[in-house]
Design goal:
single chain, about 260 residues, alpha/beta, TIM Barrel, six-stranded parallel β-sheet, two-stranded antiparallel sheet, 9 helices, binds S-adenosylmethionine, binds iron/sulfur cluster
């Protein structure tokens, strides 16, 4: 990586310890082959961040913890903490079933992870099964409880426009956990080409069906589309009414470790 054009730029840079994901969610096009980065390349990528201005790093591994080298994050933490006193930690993404493994989030906290993004998609076990997500609501509850005890924050990815979803499970879960959920990512369900995990058997009648930022889907009636927009407004309303006027007070990692 070469970020010299962005010298001094304030950002949340991305770093990959591995690429790919071996889970088989039926909507996902991430390559199925899991390939760990070499330590040499990783150190070179961390060196390339030196001219940027950042307090957090986003770890771009698709399901953090799946590749065997995840604990090499300690090396990244130490390099960055030796470079700056103003580093507040990592954001990782992973499914709740990995996060709920005994001791996993605790180890992540030690490595400097402060935010965990979960591909929650929907809080409904039957729909999660249909999507072939590798977790159930039980894992999600368990992972949230561990994260809360550790003082970690959760960023859920929600998929809107799943046929048959009324969003009640997702909204209730968000209301119960908003104290650890400062922000929500939303995407409209889409069918993508080049999906080597199979497909959802949904119609693909053009660009909108393949676009995660568009609500106009062949498989949604106008009232279902409107219900999806209402669900997004409700989710944003829940986080906004809790978090407006509050802030997250993270300690710099160097200070937390001394
Ligand atoms: C690359 S995945 C990583 C998440 C992580 N592996 C997990 O499952 O917890 C990022 C997110 O993109 C969204 N996404 C991926 N494919 C999508 C699709 N076809 N339609 C809508 N959203 C999609 C999902 O919300 C997913 O959680
Ligand atoms: S959504 Fe996440 S867990 Fe599922 S296959 Fe894609 S990257 Fe893997």
């Amino acid at each position: 990586m070469d970020y010299r054009l962005f010298e001094g730029f304030a950002c949340i840079p991305r770093l990959s310890l591995s690429s790919g994901c071996s889970f088989r969610c039926s909507f996902c096009t991430v390559p199925t082959q899991l390939v760990p980065a070499t330590e040499e390349r990783l150190v070179a990528d961390v060196d390339a961040l030196a001219g940027l201005s950042y307090g957090l790093i986003f770890i771009d591994d698709k399901s953090f913890g799946q590749a065997q080298n995840w604990q090499v994050l300690a090396k990244v933490r130490d390099i960055v903490c030796n470079r700056t006193d103003e580093f507040y930690g990592f954001i990782v993404q992973t499914p709740p079933s990995i996060a709920a493994r005994p001791g996993f989030l605790e180890a992540c906290y030690e490595l400097g992870v402060r935010y965990v993004e979960f591909g929650v998609e929907t809080v409904d076990d039957a729909l999660l099964k249909w999507l072939r997500k590798p977790f159930s609501i039980g894992h999600l509850r368990q992972a949230c409880s561990i994260a809360r005890d550790l003082g970690m924050y959760i960023i859920p990815n929600l998929i809107i426009g799943i046929p048959g979803d009324d969003y009640s499970g997702s909204i209730m879960w968000l209301e119960d956990n908003v104290d650890i959920v400062p922000v929500v990512n939303v995407n409209w369900l889409s069918v993508h080409h080049g999906n080597d995990r199979g497909s959802l058997d949904l119609p693909d009648h053009g660009i909108a069906d393949r676009d995660q930022n568009t609500s106009n889907k062949t498989w949604l009636s106008p009232s279902e589309e409107a219900r999806g927009h209402l669900a997004i407004a409700q989710c944003y309303g829940i986080t906004d009414s809790y978090w407006r006027g509050r802030s997250i007070d993270l300690q710099p990692l160097a200070m937390a470790r001394s």
